[in-house]
Design a protein that fits this description.
single chain, 286 residues, alpha+beta, Putative xylanase fold, putative xylanase like fold, 2 domains, 8-stranded antiparallel beta sheet, 41% helix, globular
Length: 286
């Protein structure tokens, strides 16, 4: 029995070390600082929606950088807390928010969370396993029991855009250039996405429904651009009865909280057509 316990501890220790080794020294330092912040502010005791807001705010001023997930020749989990685009900001915040406790021994849970949030069924097989389309991501998060798509119940109407951008523009994606068989897989995934029913709230209708959006909700911003479903994603934050968007902004080149309200932000950008709303399971409203 003692030998079995020793073997288990050695195996777990090796696994944990291997997991930690996949994180750069810079990101390990950032995680250590975040864990100190989280423990000092009792983040783990907050309701999940408040955890998301608090963690997202921690990363305000982090630089905006796109393409950080495409740095490897083969698809693998990338940990980068030094810079975000709108998607990696949200998935890292969620992965941290879903942790039970904040210390180095719990790093494997962070990595497992991140993989589950970023990849279909939490499995990394190839480039197409990554959830590239946000509507597909929302579907998978609901299927995994992490997020509830509340768009329809909050007054959403059918969303008729069909996705095809990636397969039709495969030359823009190095992974698809390298392996043409992945284009066929991506086309099949797009057909599966297009066969589902999705709903959205047109931006002209967001203001009357804004009172039903809560801090910590995930806001997927739909687009009018052909072949795409969404063009941006962020986190809702309520202040003084108004809803703002906490996001990695390409125009501001950093993580920031919008100065204008969410309805105002949507109206200002012509290509934005509306929103889908994802709410974390076990959400607690005050």
């Amino acid at each position: 029995m003692k030998n079995f316990i020793l073997l288990f501890l050695l195996t777990f220790s090796t696994f944990a070390c291997a997991q930690t080794d996949s994180i750069s020294q810079e990101d390990q330092t950032l995680l250590k600082r975040f864990f100190e912040y989280a423990n000092q502010n009792n983040i783990s005791k907050l309701p999940i929606n408040e955890k998301i807001s608090a963690i997202g705010r921690y990363f305000i001023e982090t630089p905006y950088v796109g393409g950080t997930l495409d740095i490897n020749k083969q698809e693998q989990l990338v940990v980068n807390l030094r810079e975000f685009d709108c998607v990696t900001f949200v998935d890292n915040v969620l992965a941290l928010a879903l942790m039970d406790k904040y210390d180095k021994s719990n790093l494997p849970q962070f990595l497992t969370n991140l993989k589950k949030i970023r990849y279909r069924n939490g499995e990394i097989t190839d480039y197409t396993a990554r959830l590239h389309y946000s509507s597909d991501w929302l579907h998978e998060m609901e299927h995994s029991g992490i997020i509830e798509n509340i768009t329809k119940e909050k007054g959403g109407i059918p969303f008729t855009n069909k996705v095809s951008f990636i397969s039709q523009n495969w030359q823009k994606y190095p992974a698809l250039q390298k392996d043409s068989s992945l284009v066929k897989k991506m086309t099949r995934i797009e057909k599966e996405i297009n066969a589902r029913e999705y709903y959205y709230i047109p931006k002209e209708k967001v203001l009357p429904f804004v009172g039903q959006i809560k801090t910590g909700d995930i806001i997927l911003i739909t687009t009018q651009k052909k072949g795409l479903d969404t063009s941006h994603v962020g986190i809702a934050v309520e202040e003084n009865g108004q809803i703002y968007l906490l996001h990695a902004s390409i125009s501001s080149k950093k993580v920031t909280l919008t100065e204008e309200t969410l309805p105002e932000y949507l109206q200002r950008i012509t290509s934005h057509s509306g929103i889908m709303i994802g709410r974390l399971v076990n959400f607690k409203s005050n």
